[in-house]
Each structure stands twice: as structure tokens, then as C-alpha cells.
Design brief:
Blueprint lengths: L5 E4 L4 E2 L1 E4 L4 H13 L3 E5 L5 H13 L2 E5 L2 E5 L11 E4 L4 H14 L3 E4 L10 H9 L4 E3 L8 E3 L10 E4 L4 H10 L9 E6 L5 H13 L5 E3 L3 E4 L10 E3 L4 H14 L6 E4 L12 H8 L2 E5 L2 E5 L9 E3 L7 H7 L7 E4 L11 H11 L4 E3 L3 E4 L33 E3 L5 H8 L10 E4 L11 H8 E2 L7 E5 L6 H12 L2 E4 H14 L9 H9 L3 E4 L2 E4 L2 E2 L7 H11 L2 H12 L7 E4 L3 H5 L5 E6 L2 H14 L6 H17 L12 E4 L5 H14 L4
Parallel strand pairs: 3-16, 4-15, 7-8, 11-12, 19-20, 23-24, 26-31, 26-32, 27-31, 32-33
Antiparallel strand pairs: 1-24, 2-25, 4-6, 5-6, 8-10, 9-10, 12-14, 13-14, 16-18, 17-18, 20-22, 21-22, 28-29, 29-30
Helix pairs in contact: 1-2, 1-3, 1-6, 2-3, 3-5, 5-6, 7-8, 7-9, 9-11, 13-21, 14-15, 14-16, 15-17, 19-20
Length: 687
């Protein structure tokens, strides 16, 4: 998962491949709570691992549920409809509406001494209609902040079941879902009736609730969408085993991706959900088809290709797909006419005010947008590259204020409002005709439902190689370029290439193969180097199945690397291997000739240096900490000799690239050096 402050998406041009979706958030949290309310154990397969499900799991453990985790499979030992402890409990619900609302109702019916709170945004999300309904039932609930909003204090109820319970349906379907899941706990001797006041929005989510209740032994009678009856004597029964369907809302991003970018014969294939899904958001398929997507479906899979291009502008009542409809707002940018999304008032009370958020960020991209209380109209942007949209390379161009006009793609830094769906929707804007990057702020917010979303996106998207950014950091031995490069790579979410490690690994592999590190064996070493199965995983370096992290970080390994690095055929053999590390979303390349030979067109090159005395002192501290005896004088003499040798070699001598920024870190901390490189990088971006 990307945990960086922002993630820059280079211009993308096509997509193909297979995506396996994570489990549905809506189903996962419903199943967890229902399993907790049962007697006995329920084995839950394919559960979503996300922020929201972790919130629910933490709450269930606080209540005394037994939870055993084994990957995406959980075994939940339920409470049997009764709480085991009388002590007060405080729950932190984050911003998880699918946990907050149902748990509030269940705890209010069961009774106890409970406090439920969350992040600041959760305290702005309405819960008053649910609380009003529960109070009419005889539940004891007190607002600890503003009336109508969390945090809440829950006490012991005096249940009154002789009248139908009324709840508004036009703000959030989660209120009705919460009552439907909690009230079987009270249906001892009489039917319990729930009447919905006003139009019920997001009906497909109620279908999910009813479907799952039936799986757990509760058959609710439904009279249209206005009256729901829980029969007397209803009692939760564990299904023993249940599988969580993949998330249909998450499928919307890849359906849209296929419609925008999967041209030709190779589609986007989506595994884990099909047209027969119990989730209402699967009907996003119909809206995408109206806009021009070509979709085929089978048991538990979809395949999507681009059909009409540009896409077709549509007008749609989105009450049946409230979450997935957000994706249509970004698809609208690629249409032939405006797209209007109606009946989306519920967007206003989600993780953020989503109507405002989508309108604001679409405007940043250059689109004209109109919005109302419950609707959004998005005008398209150019879908083909034109002379007016061809700019200097985006990594070195700054869009002038004069160029910021509606109707043309603009470089944008997308504010995500701590809303996972905003982040995922606007990742699709990287397929713009202007071939400019898109910055996604706070990309880790996708952890709410799809922690590995960006990794999944990059696994099926393609970009022109010259659009994938590379930062090169060069410098003499012991200048700290490896530490600096890995820190900058981590800050940007980029891949990391330690080219020095490649030479060390080449030397190690050659010696393991019985080769001498000299010109007599140069061709054999070069042949070996061309196919080295090298990969970097965090702090570890692997050669095939062998972890060589420690073996290549010795002084001897460094000397051996210097021996093979002067062999011209070996250097040539390693060029293509090093260039293969240039992958989405970008690369941080550390090494002697990264900016001069391997990536001469890299948009940022840094030549890191420090005095020989300072470098010797740093190396001395490292060696002493490892118990290796040495002297400062000998280390300094060795470094100066290696500098002279590296600078005067005939092949790729050590020198700064002509366009490199020089950074003397003799008196700088690593943090200050990282900040300086990031400042140079940010200054080159068009945002």
C-alpha cells in the first residue's frame, strides 16, 4: 500500500490484464456483525482486509467475540445475542459508517454502557434519524456533542415493541440496515414492524442486508420498500461457512478503465464478481454500457473493452448505484457530450461531501461542472491529442495561470478529502489526451476498502517509457547516495534501483560460477549478467531464491564490484537490465553512471558528494559498529584512491551529468538531503 503524502501518476495510454478484486466492504462488515450476534462459530472466507473491517473487528473483540484470523479467512465465535461483560466500553469507529450505524443499533437494543466516537468527519455524518427510531423503541442514547451526530453514549433500554418503528429512508439506507440487523435480537414474542418514512434511497444496499439476514436465519417480510416485518421468534442461526463476494463498487474503477483504455483485442478482466452479484453497484455495468463500454460476463468474472470513443454522455438517476456512480463523473470527462447524474443527495453525507468534491476536482482538471443539491453535470474534455494540448514534457513544464481555462486538460493535484472513492476515481484521469500527469494526494486513504488499489492499477496499465519518471542519484563511494536514494524512493512511492548492488551481485554470481573477475573472463561474466534474476524487496536484495543482502554489503564485495564495473562488456550487458527497472509509477536509480549512460534523459539528476574526510568518518563509524577494526587515515586514503580510479577510468568515468544538481552533504543530515531532493523534484512538476 502506498503510504506517501502524494502519488504522481504519469500519463497512461492503455490497459489490459487481469484484476482480482478484494472482498466487498458492505458485505464484509454486515457478515462480521451478524456472525458476532449468532451462537457458535462462523467461518468467513475472502473477507476484505481494510480500515473499515479492522474497525469492526476491533469493536467485536472489545465485546468479547472470539476472532481467529488466517489470511482472508476468519473464524468468529458469536455472542449468542447476549453481551458477556457489564463494564463500560469505549469504541473508536474511525470513519466507518458500515460499522458505526449497525453497531450503534445492536448495542442500543442489547443495552450496556457504551461510548461510540470516531474521526472528526464521522462526527459530521448524520445519525439522528437512526437515534430517533431507536429512542421510539425505548433505547437510551445520549449525544455527547452536537445533536444528531456522533459521538454517542448508549445505556440500557426499556423496549417498547407495540407500535411500528418509523425511520427516514431519504438520508442513508444504513439507518434501515442497522435496524434490520439489530431488531431480531428483540423479536421474542411478537412481530416487529419498521415503516420507512419518505423515499428509500440506495435500495440495492437493503437487498444486500435482506439477502444476508436470510443466510443467517432471519426471513424479513417486505411490503414494497415502505414496510419491513421481522417475524416473532426470529433468531440468528450461523450458516457455519460464508464467502464474501468481491466488491462491486471497486469493480467500477476497472470497468471504467476498460471503457477508457482497453482498446484492441486485449480486455480488462475482472475476477471475483459477475453480473449475478447480490450487490446493487454491479448495475454500474449498465451505465458503463450506455456510455459505450463493451462488457461480457460469466460466473464471477467480467471482461471490459473500449467500444464507443469518445464515450457517450448520459443522463442517469443514480439512486440504485450511489457509490459506483462517482466513477461516472470521471468517465464523463471522456464523453462526447455532458453527463448528468441525478438523485445523488446521499453523496453529501458520505465520507465527505462527494458532490462538492467531485465538482471541485473535475474543475481542477479543466472541466466545466454544474452542481445542485442532488445532481451533478460534467462537461467533457478533449479525448484526442491536439496541437493546443501538446506541451513541453510535463515534468519540466509549469502551466501558466493564463493557460488554466475550462475545456482543456490541466495538470491537477487532486485533493482526496480522506475519501477512498475520490482517490480511486481520479486515478482514471491519468489517461488524458494532453499527456500530463495527475497527482493524487494522500493515496493511503484507499485503505478504507482497497489497500492495494494503486498496485492493482499499475499491474494492468501501460505508459510510454519516456513518460515514466526517473530520478538519478550519483556520487563517489561513501557519499551516502544509497541511503538518500532509498529514502527519496520511499517518499515518492517509486521503485528503487541500486545499480551498485547489481555490480556486487554480478561479481558474487561470477565467483559462485567459478569465474575470475578479470578481462580473461569478461565475456562469460557479461553473459551471466544479462539474465541476473535480481529483485529489490524493501531492505532485502534477492538473486533468484537467494537473499544476498548481507553477502553484497561487505568491503570485499565492494572491491569485487569495482573490478567488474571496469569491464566494458559487463557494463553493456547490465544496461538493459538496469533500464528494465523503469516501471510505473517511477524509478529512483542510484549509481555511478545512471544519469550519464543508463537514463540520460532523466528529468532530475543529483550528484551527491562530501569531502573525503567526512566520508571516511562516516565509513569508520559504520565499520566500528560492526566490530571491524580500521583507522580513519587508511579509510580516507582508500576513498581518495578509489575516487581517482573511478574518475579516470576509460569506461563511464565518475563525473556529474551536465544537467545534474550538485548536493554537498558534508554538513547535512539525511533528512535535510531528502528534503532538498524532494524540493528539486516538486519544483519540476506542473502542478
Amino acid at each position: 500500500m502506498f503510504s506517501t503524502a502524494f502519488l504522481d501518476l504519469p500519463p497512461l495510454h492503455s490497459a489490459s490484464g487481469t484484476i482480482t478484486l478484494p472482498g466487498s466492504k458492505s458485505i464484509s462488515n454486515r457478515v462480521l456483525l451478524l456472525s458476532a450476534l449468532c451462537q457458535g462459530t462462523t467461518v468467513v472466507h475472502d473477507l476484505l482486509d481494510s480500515d473499515d473491517t479492522r474497525v469492526m473487528l476491533a469493536a467485536l473483540r472489545q465485546l468479547g467475540c472470539g476472532v481467529q484470523e488466517a489470511g482472508t479467512t476468519l473464524t468468529v465465535t458469536g455472542l449468542g445475542g447476549q453481551l458477556q461483560h457489564a463494564a463500560p466500553i469505549e469504541f473508536f469507529m474511525g470513519n466507518a459508517g458500515t460499522a458505526m450505524r449497525p453497531l450503534t443499533a445492536a448495542l442500543a437494543v442489547l443495552g450496556g454502557d457504551f461510548t461510540l466516537k470516531g474521526v472528526a468527519r464521522m462526527h459530521e455524518r448524520p445519525i439522528g434519524d437512526l437515534v430517533d427510531a431507536l429512542r421510539l423503541l425505548g433505547c437510551h442514547i445520549v449525544y455527547l456533542g452536537n445533536d444528531g451526530f456522533p459521538p454517542l453514549r448508549i445505556g440500557k433500554p426499556t423496549l417498547k415493541l407495540d407500535q411500528p418503528i418509523q425511520v427516514r429512508g431519504d438520508v442513508s439506507s444504513q439507518f434501515l440496515t442497522a435496524l434490520l440487523m439489530a431488531l431480531p435480537l428483540a423479536a421474542k414474542n411478537r412481530d416487529i414492524v419498521i415503516d420507512v418514512v419518505g423515499e428509500l434511497i440506495s435500495k440495492p444496499y437493503i437487498d444486500i442486508t435482506l439477502n444476508l439476514l436470510q443466510r443467517f436465519g432471519i426471513l424479513v417480510k417486505r411490503d414494497g420498500w415502505q414496510r419491513f416485518t421481522i417475524p416473532a421468534g426470529a433468531s440468528y442461526q450461523s450458516p457455519k461457512t460464508i464467502h464474501v463476494e468481491a466488491d462491486a463498487s471497486s469493480a467500477s474503477y476497472f470497468i471504467a478503465l476498460g471503457a477508457i483504455a482497453a482498446g484492441g483485442e486485449d480486455p480488462i478482466r475482472i475476477q471475483g464478481v459477475g453480473a449475478d452479484s447480490i450487490q446493487g453497484d454491479i448495475r454500474f455495468m449498465d451505465a458503463a454500457t450506455q456510455m459505450g463500454a463493451q462488457i461480457t460476463s460469466g460466473p464471477n468474472w467480467l471482461e471490459v473493452r473500449r467500444g464507443a470513443w469518445p464515450l457517450k454522455g448520459i443522463e442517469l438517476d443514480c439512486n440504485h448505484i450511489p457509490d459506483a456512480a462517482m466513477t461516472l463523473a470521471v468517465m464523463a470527462l471522456y464523453a462526447d457530450s455532458p453527463t448528468t447524474l441525478r438523485n445523488i443527495a446521499s453523496w453529501r453525507v458520505k465520507e465527505t461531501d462527494r458532490i462538492h468534491a467531485m465538482a471541485t476536482e473535475c474543475r481542477k482538471l479543466g472541466a466545466q461542472v454544474e452542481e445542485g443539491a442532488d445532481w451533478l453535470k460534467v462537461y467533457p474534455l478533449p479525448t484526442e491529442q491536439t496541437t493546443s494540448s501538446i506541451t513541453t514534457p510535463p515534468v519540466i513544464a509549469k502551466a501558466s495561470h493564463a493557460a488554466q481555462k475550462l475545456g482543456q486538460w490541466q495538470p491537477a493535484s487532486i485533493h482526496t478529502y480522506d475519501d477512498h472513492r475520490v482517490a480511486m476515481c481520479f486515478s482514471l484521469a491519468a489517461f488524458n489526451a494532453a499527456q500530463i500527469p495527475v497527482r493524487i494526494e494522500d493515496p493511503k486513504c484507499v485503505a478504507k476498502t482497497f489497500p492495494d488499489y494503486f498496485e492493482a492499477l499499475f499491474s494492468v496499465t501501460q505508459a510510454e517509457v519516456h513518460h515514466i519518471p526517473v530520478i538519478c542519484i550519483d556520487g563517489p563511494t561513501a557519499s551516502g547516495k544509497g541511503t538518500l536514494a532509498s529514502r527519496v524512493a520511499q517518499a515518492l512511492g517509486y521503485h528503487y534501483l541500486d545499480s551498485g548492488a547489481l555490480y556486487r551481485i554480478t561479481a558474487l554470481a561470477a565467483l559462485q560460477a567459478g569465474l575470475q573477475l578479470d578481462t580473461a573472463h569478461e565475456n562469460a561474466i557479461a553473459d551471466l549478467a544479462r539474465t541476473l534474476p535480481v529483485r529489490f524487496e524493501g531492505e532485502s536484495v534477492w538473486l533468484g531464491a537467494q537473499d544476498v543482502s548481507d553477502a553484497i554489503r561487505t568491503e570485499e564485495a565492494g572491491m569485487n564490484a569495482s573490478k567488474v564495473s571496469v569491464l566494458p562488456h559487463v557494463r553493456t550487458a547490465l544496461v538493459a537490465l538496469q533500464q528494465s527497472f523503469q516501471r510505473l509509477p517511477g524509478l529512483l536509480a542510484d549509481g555511478r553512471d545512471m544519469g550519464t549512460v543508463i537514463f540520460p534523459n532523466a528529468p532530475l539528476k543529483v550528484f551527491l558528494t562530501a569531502s573525503a574526510a567526512q566520508r571516511a568518518e562516516r565509513r569508520h563509524k559504520q565499520l566500528i559498529s560492526k566490530g571491524i577494526s580500521t583507522t580513519l587515515d587508511s579509510l580516507r586514503a582508500d576513498l581518495e584512491a578509489r575516487d581517482a580510479r573511478d574518475s579516470n577510468r576509460s569506461v563511464a568515468p565518475l563525473k556529474p551529468a551536465q544537467d545534474a544538481f550538485q548536493l554537498d552533504n558534508s554538513q547535512l543530515s539525511i533528512e535535510a538531503s531528502v528534503d532538498q531532493v524532494l524540493a528539486w523534484w516538486k519544483a519540476k512538476q506542473p502542478f
